[in-house]
Each structure stands twice: as C-alpha cells, then as structure tokens.
Amino acid sequence: GPKVLQIPSHQIIDMGQMVTLNCDPVSNHLYFYWYKQILGQQMEFLVNFYNGKVMEKSKLFKDQFSVERPDGSYFTLKIQPTALEDSAVYFCASSLDNSGNTLYFGEGSRLIVV
Amino acid sequence: QQQVRQSPQSLTVWEGETAILNCSYEDSTFNYFPWYQQFPGEGPALLISIRSVSDKKEDGRFTIFFNKREKKLSLHITDSQPGDSATYFCAAITNSGTYQRFGTGTKLQVVP
Which residues, in sequence order, are CB contacts of B51 under 8 Å at separation 6+? Predict the structure, then answer.
C-alpha cells in the first residue's frame, strides 16, 4: 500500500537544541499532518498543512514548533528550542483530502530530549 | 477536553474468542469513524471505518456497530488471533473537519 517515510526513525538530543523531523508523504496526497504519541498512548493532533499553509494547529503546537514543505520536498516539523516534554514519537500522516479519507501514517520518529 | 473516549484501556482474550472494543464521542456532528490498528514500533493503519448513515459495517472478522443516538460505537473482533494483538484507536471527524480526533486507545492481547 501507499507508504509514508519518516526520517530519522529516532534521535536523542540535548534540551535546547534544534531538531528537524522529515516526512516523505504519499506522492499524490495533498494534506499533511503531524501527530504526537507518548508511551504508545493517545495520538494527539499537532498540525495539518495544505497548499503550503497551516490549516489548523492544536494547543500542543507551541511557538517553538514550525512546519514547512519547501517546493514539494520533505514535509518537516522543526522544534527550536527543544524541551524535555517534547520527548515523544512524532507521526507524520498524509491524505488525499480531509473529508474523511484514510490517513496514511509513517512509522514515526522517536525523539528523546535529555 | 477528550472528545473521543475508548474502553477498556486494555483487554485480554483467549484465541478464538470475540473481543469487544468500545468507543464513545461527544460531538454529534462527527460523521466518519475510522478504526486504526497499531503494532509496536509502527504507525497506525486503517483497519475498518463507518459513516454515520450506517449502523453496521463488516469486513471479515471485524465488525463495527454504531449507535448514533447514544453516540457510541463498538468494534467486534470475532475468532481473535494472536496476530490481532495490537493497540486499536477509534477516530472521528466531522464533515467540515480538518483533522481526525483519536480516542485513548485499547491495547488488545490475544492469548494462544
């Protein structure tokens, strides 16, 4: 089936450093998402992105977070500076549209902030 | 505010039994409910979904029962197999929604 690729699969960084998580969404998909999962529990919505713009973001999407997809390349989530509570698995997802179509998730990027 | 809730948090059944996973929601405008299956170390993957115009959706051993009046759904997994051991998420979205809201998840273990 369609694949969403995420790079890196895991990363350990010092608190205060910057991290960029990369996502290669399904090729013909138009909507992109980041979700945050802690300890295998609930998937928390962070942000979604369409046509070069953020459509909606949650309270978890702090000012230190940003997303972009320059010229159809990777869809990225940047955290600068990182905090201890940013430790989690970040999942990228993409969909053809946002009216209820299936979300296709990557395998996640495990971020550990020390 | 938790808009989509699931119970139980964890469930253990014997191989061959029927596992019943419950989901409830608050927003009556939700009209699409996908269920995702997540194995450890992987991202969630769509298992089965239902729209609010239906009260039942079946796909092999997996069946969703939907009660719009009570704002509840359940996922029934018949003849459970050890390979079904995973975490199951109920999600919901409205017609005009921009993202799917996920429930708290149910971790299912099927014992041989």
Answer: A100, B31, B32, B33
Q: Which residues of A touch B93 (CB under 8 A)?
A: 98, 100
Q: How far is B59 from chain A (nearest CA, A)?
A: 16
Which of the 8 DSSP states describes residue A101? P
Residues of B50-59 as b/e, b for ≥16 C-beta within 10 angstroms?
A: bebeeeebee
Overall number of domains in chain B: 1
* Chain B contact probe: residue of A4, A103, A105, A107 with most B CBs at under 10 A: A103
Nearest 5°: the CA angle B28, B29, B30 is: 95
pLDDT digits (tens, 9 = 90+) for B20-65: 999 999 999 999 999 999 999 999 999 999 999 999 999 999 999 9
Q: Which CATH number fits domain A5-113: 3.30.10.10, 3.40.50.1980, 3.40.630.10, 2.60.40.10?
A: 2.60.40.10
pLDDT tens sequence across A17-38 = 999 999 999 998 999 999 999 9
CATH number at residue B22: 2.60.40.10
